[in-house]
Write a structure and sequence with these properties.
The protein has 202 residues and is an alpha+beta fold. It folds into 2 domains: 1-58; 69-192, Metal Binding Protein, Guanine Nucleotide Exchange Factor, Chain A (Beta Complex). The chain is 39% helix and 20% strand. It has 4 helices and 9 strands. It has helices at residues 2-58, 69-75, 78-86, 192-197, and strands spanning 104-108, 114-117, 121-122, 130-131, 140-145, 152-157, 163-168, 178-181, 186-190. The chain has a 6-stranded antiparallel β-sheet with strand order 3-4-8-7-6-5. Strands 2-1-9 form a 3-stranded antiparallel β-sheet. The radius of gyration is 34 Å and the shape is globular. The termini are far apart. The relative contact order is 0.13. The structure holds zinc ion. Zinc ion (ZN) binds next to loops.
C-alpha cells in the first residue's frame, strides 16, 4: 500500500499540475478573448469625447461681451436701456417692430448678435414682436422668472446679458413656442432684396 501510495502520489501531483497548467492556460486565453472584446468599446467610448471637445472648440464660448454702464446710457435710448438693462417691458403695440413684416434679421440692440429672423416671425396679436424660434446660431439664455406674480421663462442674450423678453409654450408649429420680444431690445436689419425693392414702391 505504501509503495502504491509512494508511486501514485507524485503521479497524481503531476496530473494535478497539468490540470492547473491547463486551467491557467485556459484562463489566459479567456482573458485574452475578453481583452480583445473589451478593446473596441474602449475605442468607441473615446470617439464621442473627441467629438465633444472639437464641438466645444467650434463654439465661441468665451464670446461674452460687457459694456460700461456709462457707455450704454449714452448709446441706448432711455426705453432701450430700461428694457434691455433693467428687465423692463415696453407697452404692447407701442414698440417699433411688433407689426414689421419685412424680410430681414433682428439683432441684439446692445451687442449686435443676430437673434431672430423674419421667417419665424408671426402675428401673435399680443402687441410685441413674436417669433416661434430663434436663429439657429443665436446664443440665447432661458431662465425661470417668478417676478410680477407670474411663472415665466425670461429670454436674455447670452453674449451680453441683455433682457429680450419671455418665451411661452403657446406658439404655432413647428416649435409650439412663442418668443415674445421687446422691440426696444432688438434692431432690425432688412434683407438686401427687401432694401432694393423699397425704391420701387411709390
Ligand atoms: Zn446681446
Amino acid at each position: 500500500m505504501e509503495r502504491w501510495s509512494n508511486v501514485s502520489t507524485p503521479a497524481m501531483k503531476r496530473l494535478g499540475g497539468i490540470g492547473i497548467t491547463i486551467a491557467i492556460g485556459a484562463s489566459i486565453i479567456a482573458l485574452a478573448v475578453i481583452g480583445c472584446r473589451g478593446a473596441p468599446p474602449a475605442e468607441q467610448s473615446s470617439t464621442p469625447t473627441t467629438n465633444a471637445s472639437s464641438h466645444e472648440k467650434g463654439e465661441p464660448m468665451s464670446d461674452k461681451v460687457t459694456y460700461s454702464d456709462e457707455e450704454l446710457r449714452k448709446r441706448l435710448t432711455p426705453e432701450q436701456y430700461y428694457v434691455a438693462q433693467q428687465k423692463g417691458t415696453e407697452r404692447a403695440f407701442t414698440g417699433k417692430y411688433w407689426n414689421t413684416k419685412q424680410a430681414g434679421e433682428y439683432k441684439c440692440v446692445v451687442c449686435g448678435q443676430k437673434l431672430f429672423e423674419s421667417a419665424t416671425k408671426f402675428d401673435s396679436g399680443c402687441g410685441w414682436p413674436s417669433f416661434y424660434a430663434h436663429s439657429d446660431d443665436a446664443k440665447i439664455t432661458e431662465t425661470e422668472d417668478a417676478s410680477h406674480g407670474m411663472q415665466r421663462v425670461e429670454v436674455t442674450c447670452t453674449r451680453c446679458g441683455a433682457h429680450l423678453g419671455h418665451v411661452f409654450p403657446d406658439g404655432p408649429r413647428p416649435t409650439g413656442m412663442r418668443y415674445c420680444i421687446n422691440s426696444a431690445s432688438i434692431d432690425f436689419d432688412p434683407a438686401e432684396a427687401d432694401v432694393k425693392s423699397q425704391p420701387e414702391k411709390k
